[in-house]
Amino acid sequence: MPSLTALTQFGPLTIYEDDGAIVRLEWDGNGGDETPLLIEAARQLRAYDAGELHDFDLPLRVAGSDFQRAVCAQMSAIPFGDTVTYGDIAKALNQSAQAVGSACGGNPIPVIIPCHRVMGAKGLTGFSGKGGVETKVALLRHEGAGGFLI
């Protein structure tokens, strides 16, 4: 599967493409393919990192259940600099907050699908990306997101 790594302040982010869509993002530095889509995805990640981009415009394909895709769609709708709770998404999807938390943790395309913008009812919670909650805090600070507890 073609992949390309973009260097950011959050670490090297490797983007994976399959059949014309971004399907995964991981914290590592192993990607070296240069397809037009991966070049554009890396450009957008670097622009986000530089504070010049707030909304990604890339074709995405989320593997998993209908519920996983629905949670990812809800997360994608969270504006730059805003946060919502697992409970907010759960209410919108008529599901439990715990199920939403699991789906957020299974987000295959973090940063681009902003799972870091989802909080627990009492504030800051974990993060499945490299660096855990410290990376989540760094992403939120980068976006100027308020209303979370450190």
TrEMBL record:
Domain Methylated-DNA-[protein]-cysteine S-methyltransferase DNA binding residues, every copy: 66-145
Catalytic activity: a 4-O-methyl-thymidine in DNA + L-cysteinyl-[protein] = a thymidine in DNA + S-methyl-L-cysteinyl-[protein]; a 6-O-methyl-2'-deoxyguanosine in DNA + L-cysteinyl-[protein] = S-methyl-L-cysteinyl-[protein] + a 2'-deoxyguanosine in DNA
Any single Pfam family the record assigns to this protein: DNA_binding_1
Keyword Transit peptide included in the entry's annotation: no
Keywords attached to this entry: Cytoplasm, DNA damage, DNA repair, Methyltransferase, Transferase
CDD domains according to UniProt: ATase
Membrane spanning stretches: none
EC number: 2.1.1.63
Family, as annotated: Belongs to the MGMT family.
Function: Involved in the cellular defense against the biological effects of O6-methylguanine (O6-MeG) and O4-methylthymine (O4-MeT) in DNA. Repairs the methylated nucleobase in DNA by stoichiometrically transferring the methyl group to a cysteine residue in the enzyme. This is a suicide reaction: the enzyme is irreversibly inactivated.
Protein name: Methylated-DNA--protein-cysteine methyltransferase
Origin species: Octadecabacter dasysiphoniae
